Amino acid sequence: MPTVRDLQAMAGEEPITMLTAYDAVTASIVDDTGVDVILVGDSMGNAVLGHDDTLPVTLDEMASRVGAVARGADDALVVADMPFLSFGADERESIQNCGRMLKEEGANAVKLESGPHTIELTERLTDLGIPTMAHLGLTPQSVNQTGYTRQATGHEEAEEIVDLAREHEAAGAFALVLEHIPANLAAQVTETVDIPTIGIGAGGDCDGQVLVFTDVVGLSESSPPFAEQFGDVRGEVADAVDEYIDAVESGEFPGESHSHTEDELDELY
Ligand code: KIV
C-alpha cells in the first residue's frame, strides 16, 4: 500500500491515478488494475444512492462504504471523503469524525472540501496523524452557492485558489484535488505547490487525474462535461439481465446443472 509520501514522490515523475469506489467488489476490481488512490467519494450520493446531490450523504453511510472499500482494496491508498457538515462546524467533532475513518474503517487518509475554514483543521488533523487531502475549485457540497459550473474564471477567484492551495500546503495537506477550474490556473497551482495536484476537469498539467467510477465505466445515466466514458457497463448489465429474463421465461434456466434431486424424496407419501 503506498503511503502519502510515496504518492508525493510520484508528483512530476509519473501521473497519479485516482478513481472513486463505493463498495468492496468494485474496490477489488479497481485495486487489481493498479490504480494509485481509491477515493470513497461523497459523489456516492448521486452516483449510487439515488440523491440529486452529495448533501444528504451521512457520516454513517460514508463509514460503511469506507469499510467496504478498505476490505476490498489491498494496494491502493484509500481516501475517505468527509460528507457535508461532518467537519468544519466544531473542531473536536471534526477530528473525531475524520479519525473514525482511519481508526474504525481502515481508510489511509481523508479528503475535505476546502476553503478558508479548513486551513486550521487541516493542520490539526495532520498533526494528529490523519493525512488530509484538500479539494479546491468546484466543491459540490457548496452547490447551493455555486451551482456545478466552471469555477475561478476571473482573476480574483483564481488568485484566491492559488492562495488557498499555498495555505493548505503550509497547513500540511498531502495532496490537492482541483475540480472544474481552467487548465492554465491548474497548471499554475501545480507549479506553485510542492504537493501533488490531482485534477478533475482541470486540464492535463496536474500531477494526477481523478474521475468518478460510474462515469468512467459507463454506468451513469449522465456525466459532467469533463468526464470520459471508457466502457459501456450499463449496456452490458442490461444485456445480461435481459438474457437472464429470457432464459427464465423460456424455461432454459434453471437447467439440470443448476438443480439437484434426492432419490429418496421421489415419493414422500
Ligand atoms: O466525491 C467525489 O467523488 C469527489 C471527486 C470527484 C474528486 O470529490
Can you walk me through this structure?
With 269 residues, the chain is an alpha/beta fold. It has one domain (4-216): Phosphoenolpyruvate-binding domains (TIM Barrel, Alpha-Beta Barrel). The chain has helices at 4-10, 24-32, 44-47, 59-72, 91-103, 119-127, 143-146, 155-171, 183-192, 213-216, 233-250; strands at 16-20, 37-40, 77-81, 109-113, 132-137, 175-179, 197-200, 208-211. The chain has an eight-stranded parallel barrel with strand order 1-2-3-4-5-6-7-8, surrounded by seven helices. Helix 6 (119-127) runs parallel beside helix 8 (155-171). It is elongated, with a radius of gyration of 22 Å. The site of 3-methyl-2-oxobutanoic acid (KIV) has 12 residues, from strand 6. Keywords: Coenzyme A biosynthesis, Cytoplasm, Magnesium, Metal-binding, Transferase.
Offer a few descriptive terms.
binds 3-methyl-2-oxobutanoic acid; 11 helices; 8 strands; eight-stranded parallel beta barrel; metal-binding; magnesium; 269 residues; TIM Barrel; magnesium ion binding; single chain; alpha/beta
Major sheet, described briefly?
8 strands, parallel, barrel
**Ligand inventory:** 3-methyl-2-oxobutanoic acid
| CATH topology grouping | TIM Barrel
CATH class: Alpha Beta
CATH architecture assignment = Alpha-Beta Barrel
Query: How many individual helices?
Result: 11
- The main sheet orders its strands as 1-2-3-4-5-6-7-8
Alpha-beta content class = alpha/beta
